[in-house]
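Task: encode each sequence below as structure tokens.

Item 1
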Amino acid sequence: MQKIKIGSHVKMAGKEMFLGSVKEAESYGANVLMLYTGAPQNTVRKEIGALNIEAGWAYAKEAGIEEIVVHAPYIINLGNTVKPETFELAVSFLEKEIKRTAAMRSRILVLHPGAHVGAGEEAGILQIIKGLNLVLDKNEDDVFIALETMAGKGSELGATFEEIKAIYEGVHKKDRLRVCFDTCHVNDAGYHLADDYEGVLQRFDEVIGLSQIAAIHVNDSMNSCGARKDRHANIGKGCIGFDVLRRIVHDSRFAQIPKILETPWICEEGSDKKTLPPYREEIAALLKE
């Protein structure tokens, strides 16, 4: 039986940087991890040489961690046709993030496709395609852009499998694209994972292809199917439920795919402040036979 690849989002901060990220992942019993290379809301980034990459990987190999996933920052919006400066920032920053991802020795950069901010779905998708072509046509790094399935809140694009397919169809270097399948987002977008697990995956396979899934975000949802709200819940505490999330973790079709938890932190007993990561307990529960 193949070892299930499972971990969580971890931070990268302080003096240890990537080394600290690996230690945090190890403390959760994880064998993969996901991180941002800097704050997701701004453009402030440490130089690659300050990320402590070599020490982190040396520790990772001892800890049995062989793969990492990088998440692009939220400030990248390739779908914006309303503000040229926002689109230009998205293109230039995505170029830098691909370089940083390659330097981190990751092959997967998860990217929120973008939002049309009122210009309409067609205009937004065409702008995302334009941005991806501007970046990928001149980039030769061995990194996949994994378009994340989105919940569809506001003017988010990528909430339907067809929208992601439309992006694929317009990108020149289609071989550089993959998908990050987020269970909470798929539920909130209107796909009934809880009631029709195989039906949802069959639909994805028909439209895009299961082979295109490069990462899975394993999250329960606080919202009913189709709510288009994107509010993650802890494993087994939401509308998707433990059994379905455990099923996707153990699905043999995804044996080689990193599964990443992004569930909310929890409160210490007697406190109303969320200060405790749930990942060690959630990973152990999901792995239990």
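Item 2
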Amino acid sequence: MSDPIPAGRRLRDALMVERPLQMVGTINAFCAMLAEQAGFRAIYLSGAGVANASYGLPDLGLTTLDNIIEDVQRITGATDLPLLVDVDTGFDDIIETVERLIAAGAAGLHIEDQVNNKRCGHRPNKQLVSTGVMMSRIDEAVAARDHCESSFIIMARCDAFATEGEAATLQRMQHYIDAGAEMLFPEALTELAQYQQITAAINVPLLANITEFGKTPLFDIEALQSVGVAIALYPLSAFRLMSAAAWEGYNAIRANGSQAAVVDRMQSREELYQHLDYYRFETALDRDADQNDGLNDPE
């Protein structure tokens, strides 16, 4: 797309007009377009979404920076909504990760404090790096950002709550702020009061990950607003809906020998065309074809 305002600036602006800012996961360019048309002001690319949807892999640190960048470029090419990107533990070279994300049009990233062989934040047996190692990750990300594009957002995700408890999580996050993290993402909290304690102790925006089937209850916007949460993230909601619908459809076709039983639950061709602005492209194609025909007409 062509918005001249840097993506990081657009995400910061969105936070000024909507609190909590609802941020939805978009696993591909078309989902990003749908999110924009639905009225969202910011979108998100989940590391699990890239692994699951683009590569058919579990969220266990099996994808690469190249895999992430490919999906980022497709999404930012389809919408001007600012995109926050999950980069797991930063990949092999955090400076390269930041530079390539900025070049690809992302608004910011979050980097986490797990070991490189990471796990989903809502699964057991997570292992964390030391606070010092995580601060070094953040420091490298900030240095790379400052060299390239100052509005790009560096967010720190902290997975300490499940293994180290609330006090250690607060301590870690303060160190992450000291290292340069502008926003925080405490993973797998279980009570509103825990968000309240964190927002009372820190002075940077806080993200709440409202993912389904995990440790965190599905708190609504009013509840999150009451405890000072700045961003409400729904990382894979649409992907889970889509996957359930696809599974239902495949089984119906296989069982019935026809898709007739599920057609009424499908997006129609006309609805797809409207979302894609299909007729504008088709009109331009027809116009070009007419002009080419005119050039080829014999005199």
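Check on item 2: The first helix runs from residue 7 to 17. The two ends are 42 Å apart (CA to CA).
End of task.
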